[in-house]
Malonyl-CoA decarboxylase (Coemansia guatemalensis), 522 residues
Amino acid sequence: MAGTTSNITAPAALLHAGSYRLKGHAPVRDGDELSQPLEPADVRAFWDNMRPEKQAESTHATADPGPLKVLELRELLTTIIHKKARKGAVAMELYTQQCCDIYESLDGDGRKAFLRMLAHEFCAPKAAAQSAAREYIDGASTEADPAKYAHLARTLRDALTPQYTELFDQINRLPGGFAFLVHMRADMLDYIRNNREDTAARAMSDGLMMKLETWIIGTLDLKRITWNSPACTIEKLGQYESVHAVKSWLDVKRRLGNGRRCFGFFHRSVPMEPLVFVWVALTDSITSNVQTILQEREPTLSSGEDAAKCAIFYSINSQPGLSGVDLGNFLIKRVVGVLRAELPNISTFCTLSPLPRFRAWLDQWLTPDCLRSPPNDVAVPMQAQDNLIASVPGTSTWTAALKHIIDSRGWTSDQITLSAMEPVVRALGAHYLVNLKRGKGNVAYDPVANFHLRNGACLHRLNWRGNTSYSGLRQSLGLMCNYNYVLDRIEDNNERYVRDGIIACSGDDPFISRASKHYAKL
């Protein structure tokens, strides 16, 4: 499909027949292929491709961009953005296709150079914007004709619009172009993480995010994902799972089995690849640790799925390129509706959520001054303080004892130490969730807490040893939290949190209650 323009030799087309194929990933099956039965070997092959080492090998083997000159690439982008192609829409599609092919052929450094050039050389031209602004200001005071005034406003708006938005619009018109842009934005975010001073790249990423958010409206389909779903869809669950790592295809099969659910939003142009998905466990009561969910070979429900009383949302994930696009909120609400219709006995909709920044905050909070003289803004019971000090001989404060424990190795297997730590860590976790705010506002510091509280959930319970995996211990010392979606309180909770920063609570967790009361007294 791709040809040659401006002496650029493009590799074979990667966007074809309504599907998008990212190098190193399994292809999207479409058309007549979907009517063919999937063999076990297909599933194993897809799963093997998902493994990081396989992806690395595949990417290394296929990435051979050749001698692409920056000048030639710049000329191609100029042709697309300024619509210099004179052969109509088909020619523009071919030019845009070629640009996508070139981008896909580049290695990591090449993509960074491409994105840097796009952000800096194809942003809004300053001279044109300044000229249009002066004309608009002059016209606002002298122009009486509404049509001419509207023309000046349109000219100013066009001058302030970055030029690369035309490229994004053209790519979105291609079959599979939406998925391409989602992956391109993931590359942008990766570049920005290592180049935080590049404000032009950040502005480009934000602009693409807003376009993706607009293009998504009215194009999403909610689907349940099962073990009988297409293999490439099941593959994506493992690839995009960022909360609880998928270890094998048997692990996925267990998560999709009896007493479990998985739902995702799919864009209609990419029907095999979930943009965002949520894992759900059907249980008899609110679960306090994720090990119970992930390690059970067969979930234990008293009388089968129909008798389940709780739906536990234990992991929500979206594609990296959709960071900042709020799809999780709508997904949870839609899934709640589906589960209520399917299983009317379920009356509790709760999460089992991580505290991703708790350990990092704690390390910063335990300053030398804090170790010598613990601050009084954390409501740690006196008996708990004494017990923790007693568990570490030679320490005189509970903060020093805690610092010594979490910096040492082997504390996770010492039952005496774990017992002494539990009330202290839960008290600190409650303080972290209830009292810590982002900046000078009323927004919760923890991003997961802010997400659920903004959606109208209640802070329900802190769970010690809720996640004993390496990742769970590294992020939060194993602490997890339940957020309870009490359906008749969601709107009121949302309004109070957004307006006043008030955190709604449910349940009877003494540490959350103590933290709330202690904060009110300060």
The longest strand covers residues 274-283. The mean pLDDT is 84. The two ends are 67 Å apart (CA to CA). The first helix runs from residue 40 to 50.
